[in-house]
Design brief:
mainly beta, 3 domains, ten-stranded antiparallel β-sheet, four-stranded antiparallel β-sheet, 21 strands
């Protein structure tokens, strides 16, 4: 074979080889696209949207935010024999600023097994960082809302705002008061007719700090004259009577804790009260500002079932309430976080389905 013929034969063979390689590459690429498309359809089009996340643990109040963890089921593909142990969850931190600005949902972890975060909780704030424990301690910068690098922990020599050691939040009745001493010798209280005939009748004693019992009774704002205190603690009732005929079901004054008097407001003088909108299953938590002479400055409906109230998070300027809406047959009641301004009654309400 002559040299030109051999060269032509080599070129023809190389052309066939290059054509084969191109077809092979196209075939492999096409197969990869098809397989990738099938996987995408399985994971996206055929997967179940698990819906919104739900609260995990209880809410914590700091100087600037209300914080709670949100647990979300990750998307999964349905099957005839679904194995719940294979479900995976993500956890986020829901931060609601007390200044009324936009809340933030900060992702913390994903791909978690169902029993991997049973002890997860919000730890509290040091003023610049919100700390949490989700399979280990972590933090969120409260300015940038960025997660801190792994391994960072709060300083050991400070107490965190909102820190609570118990696995359960404080009882809501710890923040309820029966009345307060408005001036020397003057008591302002919320009492039912039965209470006026028993523990609050003349010659009985009241103290400066008195809790209020949860009771499905109509209470009225009452004014009493008191004797000088005995041992600087007990005040004997001289006389007591309702200020007017306006009644409030299961009413109580709002206070900071079980060792405090009710929050006091000025211009005009008064306090914040909680009560139930109506008897029965439809009764919702109402909040009102009432003066010492029984004038209602404002009153608001929180939308929370009065008997499903789970948390009260009080502050000097506003109080947050956590609970669910009244029950609706066949539906799960929506959890709410509602912040009420003491001075104006302005309401900032947020669903805890996130």
């Amino acid at each position: 074979m002559t040299e030109p013929a051999a060269r032509a034969k080599d070129l023809a063979w190389y052309a066939r080889y290059r054509d084969f390689r191109l077809k092979l590459a196209l075939g492999i690429g096409g197969a990869a696209i098809i397989i990738g498309g099938i996987i995408w359809m399985r994971n996206k089009l055929l997967s179940i949207d698990p819906g919104k996340g739900t609260p995990l643990g209880f809410c914590v109040r700091t100087d600037t935010h209300i914080a709670t963890l949100i647990r979300s089921l990750e998307a999964c593909v349905p099957s005839l024999h679904r194995d719940g142990s294979k479900d995976r969850f993500s956890v986020s931190l829901f931060l609601v600023p007390l200044d009324g600005s936009t809340p933030r949902l900060v992702p913390i972890a994903d791909g978690l097994e169902g029993n991997a975060f049973s002890l997860a909780k919000v730890l509290g704030s040091d003023g610049s960082t919100l700390w949490f424990d989700v399979n280990g301690i972590g933090g969120v910068d409260l300015k940038s809302y960025d997660l801190l690098p792994a391994g960072r922990t709060p300083a050991s020599n400070i107490s965190l705002q909102g820190e609570w050691s118990s696995p359960f939040p404080p009882r809501t009745d710890a923040f309820l008061a029966a009345g307060y001493i408005a001036a020397p010798g003057q008591w302002v209280g919320l009492h039912s007719a039965a209470e006026l005939e028993a523990e609050y009748k003349p010659q009985k004693f009241v103290r400066r700090v008195v809790g209020q019992e949860e009771a499905k009774q109509e209470r009225r704002l009452c004014s009493a004259s008191l004797e000088a205190p005995i041992d600087a603690k007990y005040h004997r009732i001289v006389s007591m009577a309702p200020v007017n005929d306006v009644t409030f079901l299961n009413a109580a004054f709002l206070r900071a804790d079980d060792k405090s008097e009710p929050f006091r407001l000025t211009d005009p003088e008064g306090a914040v009260i909680l009560y139930t909108s109506e008897p029965g299953r439809e009764g919702k938590l109402m909040v009102a500002r009432v003066t010492t002479d029984a004038r209602i400055i404002w009153q608001v409906d929180t939308g929370i079932d009065r008997f499903k109230l789970e948390q009260i998070l009080p502050g000097q300027r506003s109080t947050a309430f956590v609970g669910t809406r009244p029950p609706v047959e066949g539906k799960v009641s929506e959890p709410l976080l509602v912040i009420v301004d003491h001075a104006t009654g302005a309401v900032d309400s947020h669903s805890l389905w996130q």
